[in-house]
Amino acid sequence: MQPKLSDPPRFLLMKTTSLGDVLHNLAVVSDLQRVFPGAIVDWCVEAPFAEIPAWHHGVRHIIPVSIRRWRKHLFKRETWAEISLALGALRSEHYDAIIDTQGLVRSVLLGRLAHGPVYGQNWREAREPLSGLLLNHPLAVPYALHAVERYRTIAATALGYADRLPALPLDFGLNTRYPLQPGNEVFLFTNTSRDKKLWPEDHWISVGRALRDAGLVPVFTAGNDIEAARSQRIAAGIAEGSALGEVLFRPTLTQLTERIAKARLCLGVDTGFTHIACALTVPTIAIFTDTDPELAGGFGLGLRQTFGHLDSCPPVSDIMGQLKAWGFLPA
Length: 331
Description:
The chain has 331 residues and is α/β, with parallel strands linked by helices. Helix content is 38%, strand content 17%. The chain contains 14 helices and 12 strands.
């Protein structure tokens, strides 16, 4: 059942985590702005990723939550003060539709705390089946879609514009804020959240040396000391005694995205940073070793290619071949 819309329509998006998923949900905001000009869009998101919705001009209010941290510190006064603020923000007004694209019990329960009907995937399709049973309006949107397509389809089905969705352009709303200014840097996103997603260090060194010889300057990121040590080992292997590539240690998401927009090229494992590069349309090679690319591969309008699959390790030759095909390395 489609909601009765106010003038202007008011929507709340429930996409709380993680980095890549929150980024991909930006496309939903662009769709809503095109289909419902002037629509009010608020967004509930985990605090570490609250920068991302703010990048889109179509988002009015951001409601940060910290579920994981709250659960660890339930008996602290500060925790309950933060919970009270979040609940107050969620319940501050009535929404025509609350669109849950997370598919988790906690995200649906948060949505139910707000004022308005909650839409999302039914129990057969949701990531956590129980979440589909808690919705006001469960939808038969297949899970077996790429994340971007899935999120856009959930919103379109809920609000009755699914027939128009194929004609709506893919737009993450980033071009104005982060215009491309390609220089000579190549970002190598060598770190990720799980060791099974890593690509061997010697593979990175082989590709990095070829890119160095082609005149590109490697740049790395690190979120902790272990990641920093890994990046520095790879940087040293690439340099072979010359100047080491820069390692950006714990940049904010906004700082990093501004820097990525100035890159000539990006290569990365399955990490949100790789998805940012794709969304910005920076030429990007995604290297997957423990992820299904059909569900979460590199997605965007620029040059992009994903190698690997579940329990696979793409060989260096595949990456080199793509770089040659794109003209970044000599044939």
